[in-house]
Amino acid sequence: MHTEHQKRNISFELFPPKTEKGFENLKHSVAELKAEQPAYFSVTYGAGGSTQKRTFDTVNWLMEEQITTAPHLSCIGASREEILEILEYYKSIGIGRLVALRGDLPSGTGLGDLGDLSHANQLVALIQETYPQQFHIEVAAYPEFHPQASSPQQDLSNFKLKVEAGADSAITQFFYNADAYFRFLDNCQQLQIDIPIVPGIMPITNFTQLARFSDACGTEIPRWLRKRLEGFGDDLEAIRGYGKDVVIQLCERLLAGGAPGLHFYTMNQSKPTLDIWQALGR
Ligand code: FAD
Fold first, then answer.
1. Which of 106, 164, 175, 247 is buried most deeply by CB count within 10 Å?
2. What's the total number of domains in the chain?
3. Which protein residue's CA is at the shortest distance from atom 9 of ligand 1?
4. Which CATH number fits the domain that encloses residue 265?
5. Ranges under pLDDT 50 in the chain
């Protein structure tokens, strides 16, 4: 039996589509996903100009559909004024939740364009100073540590800076090592970090794409999983079936171990996420 409380602990990430066809697909996926009554849909944001407009278009559409929406907002490459303008706009359309990030510069962008704020803790501070308690602020957390971190200890201290600046909760980078998440929670507890840290879940649908994403963001695909997925070759059905079982077990372990909810990286596809969520029977 679903309870309201359990259902509210799920959220879905979308990315802003590039084409009309992609937008139609997003609408279809949102229609299916919203039946699960998620707490919110989040929409990613890029440091490049055209991708930003697509984020605003997607956020506007979701808000028109009366869907609770959390836009991602990154500070890299942006001026303080640009960020304040976006915050004012989001406030004016009724946004109450944001995912505040440093972001990454698109490859090929010069180091001269880093912007006014160099880390996400400064963005969180700017939001809280300008609009105290107006937005629920999510930040990113890295159970396997951020690829640019000088050390795990330093990464944890930097994570704490975001919490001290006023982050209300965190979403993790995706991972397949449940132990890394639980150890991260232990470390946070030792540092008196007490905000909810929700695991980010990436369904497995395509090995090549997954390997590329994982390499880029510092997520480890454990050897046993990589080998099994590689072994299926081009057999997408086998990859999806096996990947689904693995991720369902991961989610079961995370929830049984006290994860406060799940945030799905849907890649704008409803089925892989729904297959996992519905199998959890929550
Ligand atoms: P930060 O928290 O600023 O950390 C970045 C690095 O700097 C880390 O190594 C950290 O240890 C270090 N650091 C942090 N603060 C300080 C400080 N004050 N002094 C010195 N060092 C510091 N990217 C996008 O472009 N668009 C998105 O929409 C997007 N959504 C995401 C959603 C989630 C849930 C996650 C987990 C990631 C997302 N990303 C997105 C990727 C993210 O932007 C990158 O991982 C980026 O490299 C770091 O962003 P951050 O907010 O974690 O940065």
1. 175
2. 1
3. 149
4. 3.20.20.220
5. 1-7
